[in-house]
From TrEMBL:
InterPro entries linked: Ac_CoA_lig, ACAS_N, AMP-bd_C, AMP-bd_C_sf, AMP-binding_CS, AMP-dep_synth/lig_dom, ANL_N_sf
Molecular functions (GO terms): acetate-CoA ligase activity
Gene transcribed to yield this protein: acs
Record has Transmembrane helix as a keyword: no
EC class (word): ligase
Domain named Acetyl-coenzyme A synthetase N-terminal: residues: 11-66
Alphabetical list of PANTHER family matching this protein: ACETYL-COENZYME A SYNTHETASE, ACETYL-COENZYME A SYNTHETASE 1
Keywords for the protein's UniProt record, in alphabetical order: Acetylation, ATP-binding, Ligase, Nucleotide-binding
Top-level taxon of the source organism: Bacteria
Originating species: Rhodohalobacter sulfatireducens
Lineage of origin: Bacteria, Pseudomonadati, Balneolota, Balneolia, Balneolales
Protein name: Acetate--CoA ligase
Sequence ranges assigned to domain AMP-binding enzyme C-terminal in this UniProt record: 516-594
Entry's family note: Belongs to the ATP-dependent AMP-binding enzyme family.
Coiled coil: none
Length: 632
């Protein structure tokens, strides 16, 4: 029987047991899945060498655990309800059996196009069932999927395809998100000019707009699946074979391709989904994320399917056609579990409460939060107005690299506290580090958050750059995994994540690297150098502030800002546009040439009294000059 913790006492007990014998704990969890052959070794490797392996030698196909295993028991149960962008558009439900057949058909299509085990396939699609079918079909034939959020630009898409040498791209003609139209095929065509490795493009129809067509390369989804068999024998994978690559921003350089493998990721997402959300058979679970982010991978696609849950695939946005959209969907499907991001809650809080009150939300049992710290005001609004004061909030802390939830309440079991991710899941050992790289013991302390022991869901490498993996996560504190987050452990031992301590921004729950944005802005012919920092923003959590040195003073600042926005949108995507720009004569640099960002952060937040020590700057006078300047 798989672990399904039901009381706080049991949680404490299980946590203790997991600490006493980690291998036994994870072996038990893994044993609840269908493996074609069992593993030789539960676990090997560690953070010292970055050679972590779980269930090595075990043979499986992850889709047999997500789909085939359910056919005889819950084949007729709804796996997904698809809710389109516009409430009046065509909606549909898909049973486990239908999903299985669709995945098999598409797996056959992929194989017929020559995609083989180990090949990379890039998916750049609208949030529709076909996106999920594409990912699962890749997993079924052993191809490595790399889903790129369909809000990224042609250049970002091209970089990701090039980085992993994808052989195929799956996309839509276009998509609608709110009242916006995104021409996915046009963007793909532009990206593919730079991507010679892509031999085939499969286009799934969504908007029926006119698109260009490259004969011999492009094919319609609906034509290809027409005659494909609904039976497919899944390809046997080793537990440590790659499952997917997902690009995410780091503090330096280009986004990195975080790689997850089959066995450990399966065990970890399934275990965390079950215990954190406490979804039972009849429940309707809705995670509002996009499958282009890790939350969608782990808690729309994989975690819920392993557990036989019914989930919602939502194509839209929270404010279209109006700010009651989420609640209309909750009422319509009698959603019991609702998992979203603080930024969405804060955005909806700014509208009239009638948008919430209009709908019957009494079906809700559990609310979830992910992606950024949730401030107390948003927590209370969520708790009182959405949850009617009766639903526990699971504030789930985790990362693309952790594969699944790490620190979180278990719904209805762990006593919650606004703003706190509360306690680690059994099997996870968080530690706080001081500036000398030593663990800080006791409670009522703050430090940098590390994890002490490997867990099955941890990313195994950065695609094509293992050195960077070691450097980013395993070099700051030898023998530990460094998360990049600051954290407080209060008197009760509860964890509160305070935000990134590195140069990663979190804008509306999206991770962005300062270096990435700086590089994009530096492409402007009139820009000499840029420094990007984040500053607090009521709705986005954090917003982007650009300090820019220009060659010539721009004649019209508003025009200059528009040009910068256009450039950033082209190179990265609209989410990376700086909200504020200030033109400066110089940047505060140390003698070794490093930008002292903490000073800029304070200035951006208009906290001019607490700039701290600036005596180590090469030229401390630039700070006064920046303080006096004006942003626009
Ligand atoms: C932040 C998203 C506070 C954190 C799953 C982390 C959070 C980064 C929380 C990872 C939370 C995520 N409370 N902060 N509940 N959840 N974060 O990779 O800074 O997109 O390092 O994964 O988001 O973002 P990523």
């Amino acid at each position: 029987m798989w672990l399904n913790i039901k009381s706080f006492e049991e949680y404490k007990d299980v946590y203790r047991q997991s600490e006493e014998d980690r291998k036994k704990f994870w072996e038990h969890e893994a044993g609840t899945f269908y493996w074609r052959e069992s593993w030789d070794k539960v676990h090997s490797g560690g953070f010292e060498n970055g050679d972590i392996k779980w269930f090595e030698g075990g043979k499986l196909n992850i889709t047999e655990n997500a789909l085939d295993r359910h056919l005889n028991t819950i084949g007729h149960k709804t796996a997904f309800i698809f809710e389109p962008n516009h409430p009046d558009s065509f909606r549909r439900t898909i049973t486990y059996r239908q999903l299985y057949e669709d995945v098999c058909r598409f797996a056959n299509v992929l194989e017929s196009k020559g995609v083989e085990k180990g090949d990379r396939v890039c998916i750049y699609m609208a949030m529709t069932p076909e996106l999920i079918i594409s990912a699962l079909a890749c997993a079924r034939i052993g191809a490595v999927h790399s889903i790129v959020f369909a809000g990224f630009s042609a250049q970002s898409l091209a970089e990701r395809i090039q980085d992993c040498d994808a052989k195929m791209l799956i996309t839509n003609d276009g998509l609608r998100r709110g009242d916006k139209h995104v021409p996915l095929k046009d963007i793909s065509d532009e990206a593919l000019e730079e991507c010679p490795t892509v031999k085939n493009v499969i286009v799934c129809q969504r908007t029926n707009r006119d698109i260009d067509w490259v004969e011999g390369r492009d094919e319609w989804w609906h034509m290809l699946i027409r005659n494909a068999s609904k039976k497919h024998t899944a390809v046997e994978m080793d537990a440590e074979d790659p499952l997917f690559i997902l690009y995410t921003s780091g503090s330096t350089g280009k986004p990195k391709g975080v790689l997850h493998t089959c066995g450990g990721y399966m065990v970890y997402t399934s275990y965390t989904f079950r215990n954190v959300f406490q979804v039972s058979e009849e429940d309707i679970y809705w995670c509002t994320a996009d499958a282009g982010w890790i939350t969608g991978h782990s808690y729309i696609i994989y975690g819920p399917l392993f557990n036989g849950a019914t989930g919602i695939i939502f194509e839209g946005v929270p404010t279209y056609p109006d700010a009651g959209r989420f609640w209309e969907v909750v009422e319509k499907y009698e959603v019991t579990h609702f998992y979203t991001a603080p930024t969405a809650i804060r955005a909806l809080m700014s509208y009239d409460l009638d948008f919430v009150k209009k709908y019957d939300l009494s079906s809700l049992k559990v609310l979830g939060s992910v992606g950024e710290p949730i401030n107390e005001e948003a927590w209370h609004w969520y708790h009182d107005h959405v949850g009617g004061g009766k639903c526990p909030i699971v504030d789930t802390w985790w990362q693309t690299e952790t594969g699944g939830i790490m620190i979180s309440p278990l719904a209805g079991i762990t006593p919650t506290k606004p703003g706190f991710a509360t306690l680690p899941l059994p099997g996870i050992t968080p530690v706080l580090m001081d500036e000398n790289g030593k663990e800080i013991g006791g409670n009522g302390v703050s430090g940098n958050l590390c994890i002490k022991h490997p867990w099955p869901g941890i990313a195994r490498t950065v695609w094509g750059d293992h050195e960077r993996y070691l450097q980013t996560y395993m070099s700051s504190y030898k023998g530990y995994y460094f998360t990049g987050d600051g954290c407080r452990r209060d008197e009760e031992g509860y964890y509160r994540i305070t935000g990134r301590v590195d140069d990663v921004l979190n804008v509306s729950g999206h991770r962005l690297g300062t270096a990435e944005i700086e590089n994009a802005i530096d492409e402007h012919p009139n820009v000499v150098e840029t420094a990007i920092v984040g500053y607090p923003h009521d709705i986005k959590g954090e917003s982007i502030f650009a300090f820019i040195i220009c060659e010539d003073q721009p004649k019209n600042k508003e025009d200059f800002k528009k040009e910068i926005h256009k450039l950033v949108t082209k190179i990265i995507g609209p989410i990376a546009k700086p909200e504020k720009i200030q033109i400066v004569a110089g940047l505060p640099k140390t003698r070794s040439g490093k930008i002292m960002r903490r000073v800029l952060r304070k200035i951006a937040a208009n906290d001019l009294e607490n700039l701290g020590d600036t005596s180590t700057l090469l030229d401390p006078s630039v700070v006064d000059e920046i303080k006096e300047g004006e942003a626009f």
